[in-house]
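Comment thread on ticket #2218

A.B. wrote:
> Attaching the input chain for the structure job we discussed in standup.
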Amino acid sequence: MTPRASTKVRRRLPIYRLVLRSQVTRARLAALVALGVVGVAVGAALGRADRPAEALSDGTVVAGHLLAGARFVNTFGLSLLVPVTALVFAAASLGDPDEEGTLVYLWLRPVRRSRIVLAAAAASYTVAWPVVVVPLALAAAATRGGAHLVVATVASATLALVAYTGLFCALGLVTRRSLVWGLLCVFVWEGFVATAADSAGRLAVRTYSRSVLGDLASVPLSGPEVSAPLRWVVPVAVAVVALVFATWRLRRRDIA
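C.D. wrote:
> Ran it. Output below, let me know if you need it in another format.
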């Protein structure tokens, strides 16, 4: 590693560690881990039940445990656990220091604003990934839906978490009521409005993650469908655009 590259790493890591320490609180972890434990318990209950194969409206016959498991991962994981966990950590990564008046100490550091934003997003993702993906993978396995369902769960949850982390990291810099607006986005827009039409559904992260889940698990799921490669590319693009906006926002605003 060159001296210049080593200096860049040393500048980034303290910000990353600072944001990481501020996010990992007992209350947040306890609440979200408990939610994940509930998911594993429900998945186990689904796996214990007798579920014969089902014939869908298009004539496709799907194994009962696979279908129930995929629907559970979609409803509980991609619609609740993933976005809420990302919101709790990502919105707080820069939003909490901004609200508390301590963001100025990061803002005054001799580093690029993009590095501050990337460090905050990376810290949020580092905390959220095990809280989200590990219990969802265990829940998917507990449903007895098979290895393909577990792989599809890990891939779709990871991809969705990328997009939500970028979006909510930017949201934390836009408003001091980021938790309220984030919940409205998750439950009102993505939960109701985006399911009403295909055009609206393409503006929801959940549509893309659900498409990845259904494709990899080979299970048709209700709701708007997005074909490859858009189902993979768009969530990453959303995260990139959101983080670019957050960087611009941090550069333009006055920190006091």
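A.B. wrote:
> Thanks. Noting for the ticket: Confidence is low (pLDDT under 50) at residues 1-11.
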